[in-house]
Amino acid sequence: MDYGLRGRVAVVNAASKGIGRAIAEALAAEGVQLVLSARNGDLLERTATEIAAAHGIAVVPVSADVARADAAAMLVGTATSRFGRLDILINNSGGPPTGTFAAFDDAAWQHAFDLLLLNVVRMVRAAVPHLRASGHGRIVNVASTTVKQPLPGFILSNSLRAGVIGLAKTLADELGPDAITVNNVCPGRILTDRLREGQRERAAREGVPVDDLVHATAVDVPLGRIGDPSDMGNLVAFLCSDAASYITGTTIPVDGGLVRSLL
């Protein structure tokens, strides 16, 4: 689908694989030039090369840990120095460890704060002047369905991703006059490499076929399947387009109907 995005520029974080890569692929298919970040530089280089070759667009890989204070300025600076503009910011990162409240000390909370919330603050701060100049500024935060239905054992994610949602809602109000939209997308059960590996390990322990476990994981999903990363990418590409110019401040689950909350 042609969303009219050709020639625009995006920074996509945590983009070497999984959901981040799917978002990068969807934007590249629309002709968006990309700056991609991830911690694994070798994998990121391969991803960038593959996306550029498949879609005929420029892709700049930048090895970066978005939990670090210097990452935001480096990534936004790379986009503006290489392409002369920035139109789209995709905030994404790996998830924090799972565990109960008693399992985490101050250092664990601080790292999760830097990774999930302060990272977004820094990226937005660095990007907003350029998004304002764009006239089509888009900010999309990849969160989790835990912001609508918290999960046991996800205390760090349950707490800090909720902060991202509050930040986005306030930013939607503050940045609306600049034609910058701010939205959140919340993956449910998506068949990423991380999920596949977990299923393979469990299948080996229990002596059952991997496909049986994948099917069982979807048993309470109304659409009856695990999501594909492209389901996330397709939504994000739409939200970044002018077709979605009147959508801001929203939090959208991509979960096949798994979360039963009304809002």
Q: Quaternary state, please? A: single chain
Number of helices: 8
Report the average pLDDT across residues. Answer: 95
> Could you say which overall geometry the principal axes of the C-alpha atoms support?
globular
Number of DSSP-assigned strands? 7
Q: Which stretches are poorly predicted, pLDDT < 50 over at least 5 residues?
A: none
Q: What is the terminal separation in angstroms?
A: 29 Å
The strand order across the widest sheet is 3-2-1-4-5-6-7
Strand content: 5-15%
What does this structure look like?
This protein has 263 residues and is α/β, with parallel strands linked by helices. It is 47% helix and 13% strand. It has eight helices and seven strands, in the order βαβαβαβαβαβαααβ. The chain has a seven-stranded parallel β-sheet, sandwiched between helices. Helix 4 (106-134) links the parallel strand 4 (88-91) and strand 5. The longest helix is centred in the middle third of the chain and has 29 residues, at 106-134. The two termini are 29 Å apart. The model has no long low-confidence stretch (mean pLDDT 95).
Kindly list the characteristics that best describe this protein.
alpha/beta
Summarize the structure.
This protein is α/β, with parallel strands linked by helices and 263 residues long. It has eight helices and seven strands.
SSE diagram, text form:
Layout: E1 9-12, H1 18-29, E2 33-38, H2 41-55, E3 59-63, H3 71-83, E4 88-91, H4 106-134, E5 138-142, H5 155-175, E6 181-187, H6 193-206, H7 210-217, H8 229-239, E7 251-254
Parallel strand pairs: 1-2, 1-4, 2-3, 4-5, 5-6, 6-7
Helix pairs in contact: 1-2, 1-8, 3-4, 4-5
